[in-house]
Structure to design on (656 residues):
């Protein structure tokens, strides 16, 4: 029948952009359509939430989470999600349309794969999961239905609808009191505590590898509870037990990926991929093309959804809701380990005392139903009794001194829920180590929240070395606002940093500081004073150049006279040579205009000795000429005249 006739949604244009062309797949939660992106003119897949779920916030949140989780990833082995929205009462998300089939379709057609083919499929799956794990995203629903194989052999991981970002404890938690996922592929910790991390995806990938090698999952049963019990209490059998001849290294690879204790598995998809690569190399397995199954009749469009349209594998109960935490714990469930119940491989023994006249298959069905009812009642009664008795109580473990990861694991093992970890500074407890818990000890009810306080190590503050050279007042105000330390100041000269700016700190910048520690900010007083050199006897030009080279400014004062310095040379500098003058201060030089001037004394009438003494005392030279006497009759330079020191004066002596 024409899809457009049977499905009224076909033909709608969502948000004026996506025209729904054809229904590709339909499930209980959503329907997938091929659509045309009218803006980019390309074909896309549009997943539309079922109408009866569109008003349920839980499922709308799952849709939104799928879009956000996948949009965070950009990897060739992850289905690209490009848009999400709601229009005309429809909640939808837009993703790439992959032409091909699911791994479930391939296994249904082929039965099982060779080791080389299984590796060829699992390697790109792990590559896509590696990108998700490194982005902090856990898929939580890895199974063959969510592995898409394009007709070109490209393998992509689809349906991040159950994905969650890893929280502070490194785990994702259950939502709404029920555990969502496909039971045949859920890890023991998901079944017991509803918590998952990257190692939970590794467990599911190991189950998928087992199924590819054997053609069926390791566990089967009539109810999800029966399958869950086997995941929690049994080790996954070796694939070679089903397919003789498989290498023991492949058995070991499956065993490492599916250990019941998460700590025994590879830490994430990247680590599991590395182990697979080592096994390929050890066995000398050459790469083969990804089996596309194009020669096998089947759908040609991969459904980007976790709701396949073809019948599920008999041992895959599909994506189902299980009871809350602990419902898979059956160590005290009477009858789970004995009697005519489901064995590890999902094969059931015969039933005795069947009534004659009833067809065998009806008798077997009734017998299985009766056993399941009895077991379920026994489990329920036992669990209620255990819970009302000692089972509801647990002991808070002593966590002081434990690492964050060890503390979270110990709390979860005790049935307690660690709250988001609180970090505090501590001078005594190393970083990453638990300081305290609340409650600290004693018996509490299972599921109680425990507040964990983890040390961040000693509280330290740093002064940025970039503050050196900046104004001290500005730096002090900034530091007092930013870091809780006490600042004192000291001053010192500095030849390069301007006065009033920061030279350094004591302790130096970059040193870890404690709260309220006293530090000293060293502030520059400017350039240190400079000693004035002796420039006397130099020309004014030479003296000026020498003084300016030391940072001084030079001005020339009035010329003077000096008996010791030649005319035109510097005879003095102020401040005097040898004294300290401020850097960039102004010095004054005095240039000699010649020898000093003196006034000629009057020596007329003096005897020769008196006249000679008086003239020499004035700084003059004396020459005497005698005419029969001893008294000065005349002097060559008149008394009172001003002459240069050293000028010669001739005196004429005669009778008095």
């Amino acid at each position: 029948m024409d899809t457009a006739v049977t499905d009224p949604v076909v033909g709608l244009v969502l948000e004026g952009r996506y025209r729904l062309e054809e229904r590709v797949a339909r499930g209980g939660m959503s329907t997938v359509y091929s659509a045309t992106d009218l803006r980019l003119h390309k074909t896309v897949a549009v997943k539309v939430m079922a109408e009866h779920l569109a008003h349920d916030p839980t499922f709308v949140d799952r849709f939104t989470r799928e879009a956000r989780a996948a949009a965070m990833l950009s990897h060739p082995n992850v289905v690209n999600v490009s848009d999400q929205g709601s229009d005309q009462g429809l909640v939808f998300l837009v993703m790439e349309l992959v032409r091909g089939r699911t791994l479930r379709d391939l296994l249904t057609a082929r039965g099982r794969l060779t080791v080389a083919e299984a590796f060829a499929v699992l390697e790109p799956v792990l590559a896509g999961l590696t990108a998700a794990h490194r982005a902090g995203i856990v898929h939580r629903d890895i199974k063959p239905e969510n592995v898409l194989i394009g007709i070109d052999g490209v393998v992509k991981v689809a349906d991040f609808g159950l994905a969650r970002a890893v929280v502070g404890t490194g785990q994702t938690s259950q939502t709404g009191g029920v555990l969502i996922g496909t039971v045949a592929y859920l890890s023991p910790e998901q079944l017991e505590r509803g918590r998952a991390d990257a190692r939970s995806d590794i467990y599911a990938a190991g189950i998928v590898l087992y199924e590819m090698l054997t053609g069926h999952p390791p566990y089967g049963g009539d109810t999800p509870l029966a399958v869950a019990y086997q995941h929690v209490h049994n080790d996954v059998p070796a694939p070679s037990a089903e397919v003789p001849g498989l290498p023991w290294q492949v058995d070991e690879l499956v065993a490492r990926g599916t250990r019941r204790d998460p700590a025994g598995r590879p830490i994430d998809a990247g680590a599991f991929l590395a182990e697979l690569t080592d096994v390929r190399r050890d066995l000398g397995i050459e790469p083969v093309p990804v089996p596309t199954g194009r020669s096998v009749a089947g759908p040609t469009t991969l459904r980007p959804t976790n709701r396949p349209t073809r019948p599920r594998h008999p041992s895959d109960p599909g994506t189902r809701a299980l009871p809350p935490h602990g419902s898979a714990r059956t160590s005290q469930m009477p009858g789970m380990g004995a009697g005519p119940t489901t064995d590890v491989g999902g094969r059931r023994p015969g039933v005795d005392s069947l009534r004659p006249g009833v067809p065998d298959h009806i008798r077997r069905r009734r017998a299985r139903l009766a056993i399941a009812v009895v077991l379920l009642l026994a489990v329920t009664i036992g669990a209620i009794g255990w819970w009302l008795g000692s089972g509801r109580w647990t002991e808070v473990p002593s966590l002081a001194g434990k690492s964050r990861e060890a503390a979270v694991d110990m709390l979860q093992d005790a049935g307690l829920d660690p709250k988001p970890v609180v970090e505090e500074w501590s001078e005594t407890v190393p970083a990453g180590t638990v300081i305290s818990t609340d409650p600290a000890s004693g018996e509490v009810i299972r599921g109680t929240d425990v507040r964990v306080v983890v040390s961040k190590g000693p509280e330290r503050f740093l002064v940025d070395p970039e503050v050196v050279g900046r104004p001290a007042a500005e730096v002090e105000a900034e530091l007092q606002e930013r870091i809780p330390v006490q600042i004192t100041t000291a001053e010192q000269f500095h030849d390069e940093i301007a006065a009033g700016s920061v030279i350094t700190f004591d302790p130096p910048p970059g040193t870890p500081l404690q709260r309220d520690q006293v530090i000293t900010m060293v502030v520059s007083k400017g350039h240190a004073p400079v000693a004035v050199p002796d420039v006397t006897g130099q020309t004014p030009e030479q003296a000026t150049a020498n003084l300016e080279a030391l940072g001084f400014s030079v001005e020339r004062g009035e010329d003077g006279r000096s008996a010791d310095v030649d005319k035109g040379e510097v005879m003095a500098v102020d401040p005097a040579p040898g004294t300290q003058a401020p850097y960039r201060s102004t010095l004054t030089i005095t240039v000699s205009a010649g020898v000093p001037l003196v006034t000629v004394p009057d020596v007329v009438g003096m005897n020769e000795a008196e006249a000679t003494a008086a003239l020499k005392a004035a700084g003059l030279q004396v020459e005497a000429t005698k005419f029969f006497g001893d008294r000065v009759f005349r002097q060559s330079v008149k008394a009172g005249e001003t002459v240069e020191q050293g000028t010669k004066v001739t005196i004429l002596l005669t009778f008095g």
